[in-house]
Amino acid sequence: MKNLFIIAILVSISSICTFAQEQENQGYTFTTIKELPITLIQNQNRTSTCWSFSSLSFLESELIRLGKGSYNLSEMYVVWHTYLEKADRYIRTDGNINFAPGGGFEDFIYVMKKYGMVPEEQMTGLNYGEEAHVHNEMDAALKGYVDALLKNPNGKLSTAWKRGVEGILNAYLGVPPSKFSYNGKDYSPVSFAASLGVNLDDYVSLTSFTHHPFYSKFALEISDNWLWSESYNLPLEEFMSIFDYAIHNGYTVLWASDVSEIGYSRKGIATVPEVDVNQMSGSDQARWLGLSPVARNAELSKIAERPCNEKTITQELRQVAFDNKQTTDDHGMHIFGIAQDQDGKKFYMVKNSWGKTGDYEGIWYVSEAYASYKTIDIMVHKNAIPLSIRQKLNIK
């Protein structure tokens, strides 16, 4: 559990809820302000491939925006090629990159440029007796294999080692098609990607941290950024302005965030509840100190599930949480709308990849405070950025 919330459980929550005591169990009521088209909710199930699911959800919405129609693209085609590329870099760097199933948003662009894309029906990735994705065994087999290669038991690497990686991937995810038919036309993965008509160079990553200069680019120091792709760095106020500008101008937002906070409820709400030590009462303190850690966490989770006062998020608070590892790169999701609760507070509508779970069947409502505090980075079309900011970043 994060230190910030371990401290929080020791203080009173008497002033958190905005409703009167008799209404304290009432949940949220949301009104949609702006909602953009998305494709069907998907389920990554027991995998760490949220980055692929969210990225392709974002791309599918882009295709709708561009008038290309509705597509269901293959997440596992991207995962297959990303794993192979990652294995190559892992061996070349003597194991000094993170070889794991996680990834970043730049990965799908890298794969599409080099290997193309296929529809979901051409590569479901379910080649191992499961009806839903379960990657624990495959991940362990791949990691064990490349670690064995690092020991160089022959004194030099053979010409077969990459085929070994491919063999494991093929056994679990299937063999990537070289040719296929779709809607009556014949394609290769490269020609299919070209037929989508998306300029992949139009998409940029942005973030907001003070350990690098603003209005410059840097590679986020997170383990899943194995490509060391760069993000533009903005002051927090300008960074957050892009969320609203994008949605109101018809562009969705690819969103990476920490979701391990108590305020990120599995029921479909994400907030940053405020706990004020100055308003602590003796009776509340005694009650909270008497609860077990599990019980206290359960009570705090309930706070996040109904309207409450939230912390004021500053650039400094955000940076401290990133520096001390309270904010980590946990999950990739897809922001497609803006809503407000019954008190008029702004929330972002987020498409998750955990199936139709939670109170909103796979959709999360994330407060502006939570997004300000816990966002790692976002990816958007360059035209989703206000012109004044694009000029500062020298984005043409």
Identify the CATH class of the largest domain: Alpha Beta
Helix and strand sequence: HEHHHHHEEHEEEHEEHHHEEEHEH
Instruction: Tell me the strand percentage band.
Output: 5-15%
The shape, in one word, is globular
**Reported CATH architecture of the largest domain:** Alpha-Beta Complex
The count of β-strands is: 12
Mean pLDDT reading: 90
The helicity comes to 25-40%
- C-alpha end-to-end distance: 43 Å
- Low-pLDDT sequence parts: 1-24, 276-283
**Major sheet attributes:** 10 strands, mixed
The SS-based structural class is alpha+beta
Number of helices: 13
Rg measurement, Å: 22 Å
CATH homolog superfamily of the largest domain:
Cysteine proteinases
The total number of structural domains is 2
CATH topology of the largest domain, by name, is Cathepsin B, Chain A
